[in-house]
Amino acid sequence: MVSNVGIVDRWRALWAAAPEAVVLVDQATGRDWRAGELESATAWGAAYLHSLGIRSGASVILSAAPSDATALAFIGLLRLGAVVVPVNTAATPREIAHISGVSGATHALSDEPERFTQMPSHSVTPLTVPGEAVDTSIELDRTVGTDRALICFTSGTTGAPKGAPLTHGNLLAGTTALVECWQWSADDVLVSALPMFHVHGLLVALAGTLTAGATIVVHHKFDANRLVDSALTHHATLVFGVPTMWARLADSGRLFELAHLRLAVSGSAPLAPTLFTTIHSATLSAPVERYGMTETMILASTPVGGIRRAGTVGRPLPGMSIRIADDGVVEVRGESVFGGYLTSAPTDPLLRSGFTDDGWFRTGDIGEWDGDDLRLVGRASELIITGGYNVYPREVEDVLRTDVAIADAAVVGLADDTWGETVAAFVVLESEAVADAETLERWESLCSEQLAPYKRPRSFSVIDELPRNAMGKVKRDDLRARGVVRSES
Ligand code: MCA
Ligand code: AMP
């Protein structure tokens, strides 16, 4: 039976039981927040947001570097009953306009309000750490499990990101499963430099810590040396990162200083077996790999108490069911899985797109069982994952095709040791066009204007025509096999 308890009730019960416990530390300022302070500061925050005109049920963009202020704003919004819409701090005005339009966001909270030029200035508020007391007599903490907590935007095959709403119940189920699976306790200290505009940083790291009643040390930006220093200073037991962060930690030569961790956790993209081995040898313990999605939260993890094997993402989390369909696609079901994409009408087929008739969500990842462990062997979709960020080729191709010199374009991910994959563009020129230095500069500035930096192609290869199969579909494997083409033009 699905319970209808909201996640905020769980957190507040833990704060009330141990008000002196340090829950949140801002690494840059050194400010720490005890549970009792968090209770009053987030009530203040919620009242402040209310005074700005934000009401229960309103969608509010949250776009800021990870910090104590970002964490407090997130909790304050949830306590008020508002719906948090996390937005990448690198999003361009075009991308912000799409997200605010689709989500119907009435307000934005940001550490760079000047980036929100397309929203009325009175609705964009700089993030602040709580100060003077305000009227806190407003109604807080009324949410139940079925209420919407977030709308996360995730890359869409149509080229435009889709909104994936998650409820308070999804968050509670997803974080409770993690707490159980990782034996996450009040004694744990997590050091995290993950962005707080994705499920990994916001829900796995921050909300997971709150549900565990543990401590999180938040870094504003990832820096390998600073992360190791902080892990030592704060006696960290947990570090969560995407493989690119682990690769940079390995390059720093200081991985061995993390040998005191209880768990070194990697996720969001495949962890190369060589990097798995490097982490294992340096920290004297195998990293935990976990597999998740924005639409589902975390689905599987390698075991805390058992053998963790390179190349596998482990077993389903408590309460989660995983099956592999005949076409190899991983399908999932569980209480943390969202109910369908954001649509303006319940009849819109987008709502339940990705779900099977019997209610399982198709992840788009191709998997196989290796004993009890799930092994991901590829993707049915064209998704590129670079440094843990997702890029859908269609969105980049649509931008490239607006250039006068480009007749056609295809974008693929090329394998890369640090980033996992990098974005590479293959373009076919219009008949009279040439690809000289000026043209290349124009393509680069077009992409800079339209696309967040991580989506921009790192290389442009001019080819005579795109390889296509009999159905007219671009053969992306052929393009990947070519790598960066330097000679054709
Ligand atoms: C930054 N750049 C990137 C990326 N990040 N390019 C491609 N892919 C990226 N991911 C660009 C910068 O804009 C800059 O471009 C250049 O690379 C170098 O910037 P640098 O300062 O070195 O990068 P950084 O700021 O240190 O960022 C690297 C990073 C970051 C820390 C690895 O990408 C990151 O935080 N990734 C984590 C993403 C994440 O949390 N994903 C979870 C989503 P230029 O030189 O042109 O200026 S998936 C999820 O939530 C599900 C549920 C799951 O399973 O977890
Ligand atoms: P997102 O849409 O940003 O939530 O990204 C979800 C996708 O990231 C999944 O569908 C997988 O393709 C990928 N992913 C997440 N965790 C892992 C992992 N541990 N190994 C391989 N791929 C992963």
Written description of the protein model:
The protein is of the alpha/beta class and 489 residues long. It folds into 2 domains: 369 residues, Rossmann fold, CATH 3.40.50.12780; 100 residues, ANL, C-terminal domain (GMP Synthetase, Chain A, domain 3), CATH 3.30.300.30. The strands form 6 sheets. A 9-stranded mixed β-sheet has the order 2-1-10-9-11-12-13-14-15, with helices on both faces. It has a 4-stranded parallel β-sheet with strand order 4-3-5-6, sandwiched between helices. Helix 1 packs across helix 2, helix 2 crosses helix 3 and helix 5 packs across helix 6. It is globular. The protein binds methylmalonyl-coenzyme A and adenosine monophosphate (AMP). The site of adenosine monophosphate has 20 residues, from strand 13, strand 18 and strand 19.
How much strand content do the residues show? 25-35%
What's the arrangement of strands in the largest beta sheet?
Answer: 2-1-10-9-11-12-13-14-15
Treating each run of at least 4 consecutive H or I residues as one helix, how many helices?
12
Count of DSSP strands: 24
Ends apart, CA distance between termini: 62 Å
The CATH topology of the largest domain turns out to be Rossmann fold
Instruction: Please estimate the helix content.
Output: 25-40%
Q: What's the overall average pLDDT, rounded?
A: 94
Bound molecules: methylmalonyl-coenzyme A, adenosine monophosphate
Write out the CATH superfamily name of the largest domain.
ANL, N-terminal domain
